Sequence to fold (558 residues):
Amino acid sequence: MKDFIKIRNVFFKYDENDDSDNFALRGVDLDIKKGEFVAVVGHNGCGKSTLAKHLNSLYLPTTGEVFVNGIDTADDDRLFEIRKMVGLVLQNPDNQIVAGIVEEDVAFGCENLGIPSAEIRERVDNALKAVDMYEYRRHSPEKLSGGQKQRVAIAGIIAMEPECIVLDEPTAMLDPQGREEVMNTIRKLNQELGITIVLITHYMDEAVKADRVVVMDKGKIILTGKPREVFSKVEFLKQHRLDVPQATELIYKLRGCGYELPECVLDENECADSIAILLEKCLKPSGK
Amino acid sequence: MVRDMTLGQYLPGNSFVHRLDARSKILLLIAYIVFLFLCRNFVSLLIMTLFSFLIIFLTRISFLKYLKSLRLVLVVIIITGIMNIFYGSGEVLWQWWIFTVTKGGLINAAFVVVRISLLMMISSVLTYTTSPTDLTDALECLMKPLTIFHIKVHEIAMMMTIALRFIPVLLDETDKIMNAQKSRGADMENGSPIRRVKALIPVLIPLFVSAFRRAGDLATAMECRCYNGGKNRTRMKVLHFSLRDLAASLSSLLIFSAIIISNIMFSNVI
Fold:
């Protein structure tokens, strides 16, 4: 598959006049394919949010280059083209809703793009259906739960028909139920509409669901691979002050105690299954 | 406490009034206010009151909501009502020390109370039945002639949209900060007025900081959605003047003429 986003040796510092070595990003190289679901993890201040804002040219690299579908993000004339292709959803759902009615907020992006009224109507309805918020279209956002608000924010981006959605810790301010709603929506968009997803998160349980996990620390990418490959390196992640999913951690600790368990499990079901197999094995000899 | 505020709140619906063009609603409201203050005798005031109740009935919104909007200005209504009782001329009905109640005063008071109440309720009709975006779109449209004076009409309308959107958010936040400060031992209910105002400082500073942070986030979100200051912007809902608006305007015109006629025919009391 074609590379949709290419990040080439990007260095970035917030203050251009600052001569010290205060880089938020230090030589990031990353390719993201069309239709891929990539999770970027790392602890606070590792540069993952900064990286997210490079993808739709909110930030421009101090040195290095970012290409979206072959367009350099530094190309000022094609700014809106890039932002139309790569939508960004932020952490706080309250702060990114502009209008006082759900459907009018979803329409905001399309209105800015100058799309004819009838087509906006259609796009808004489809976007709201895609995030399962259609029946709330006439509501005012402040009456919605956090998860619902975040889905409205996602609908506002989908209505612009982007090829890629970047989500910057979209679940950090939500309760477990809202988190699940948002994660289900994200996966649905990826699988059914084929939208490329870049999910910035610090919940490892969410990263597990991605096609590929990118681990960042101190402005660099330190590890990248399929979730199973990444989370099997428990030691390495711990060294960089990162957690692994709870199920993975449990199995890792049991293995440390000498139990025969698979090298890496990712979720509760796998964990339960592998422990069940182990128990059966232990019980059989004594049962005879 | 702050949660009870109903001012500026939109109650979605599908009534005749809801479906009127926001521009005609704004213009009719302005005309309504002018004629409300032109009512100079009981007959015209009665016509206006009946007309107001008809409008309220047509919105299909519970009358309780309108009474709630009155609660906000209840103090104003009571104070101006009482003041008016003692200012007036004509037949003296009751006198004590410097207080004199006259017939004229009583009539003035009655008029003021009815006028302010109707004014509040009918203004609420506009905000209850018009979505904030429609409202600001309509204002943008009505103010368009001002662009020749280099007034940035689109920007003003956008600011109003955002302000309306964030009023409840910031009210919520105020509540939270107040509770946080109270739980740290801040005393906001006791002491002299000056002390109480001072006690608000630790509420206002975090509120401002958070408002600026929200503004930064919102600006980013708007940029992400290709906002470029209203150039080549289209609308999902296009305002259009329909037969319904014509009917509403004509019937209002009829009522307003009835008021002028009754002002001429009956003796004016105010």
